[in-house]
Amino acid sequence: MKIIDFSNEEEKIRTFFKLISLVSLVIIISTSIYGVLGTLIQGGNVVGEVLVTLEVPPIELFPLFYSKPITWLSAAILALFFSSLELGKDTVMQWKKFHRDILKFFAFFVCAMATYEVLFNFTLWGGLIASDSILGELNVDLIKNTFPNPETPWNIVFATKLFTVLVIISAYSFYYLQRIESKINERHLSHPAP
To answer: In this structure, are strands 144-145 and 154-155 parallel, antiparallel, or unpaired?
Structure first.
């Protein structure tokens, strides 16, 4: 598979999406390895906390350009997903309508469920920020949700960003599949079968 090809406009666009996919995949893998190893080494029991309590690159080195590993991970997941969909457009158009409709239903369902989680997390986050602020112990990066399992709490920043990514991915998947369906219908109308 040739990654870089500037022979025509379409190949330039495909090259762009291939490069974005590769860079995103490297960020996802390295961030995930850092998260797993960091949690094991630190012995943390809060899911995702190690991806929230650090700035990359360090603020001291790059005061204008830094972010948390969870932000890099979220951005990379979105970029990889979008690029993969754009690269696979022709393949998806060849799938049977039944398969596309099942995926469209799944995308709608996941979007609805993940939207609830995002709203729940933002509401909980706001309440816990207010509570911690009154107690004078405010650090929004360390706020965690201990419900329903206090043994394995989730960091709210981590959970909210990942569920927001899930909402965006599922909503865009629904739109993407709907757009493909429209293109297929346009082709059938402009070239009716004999």
So the answer is: antiparallel
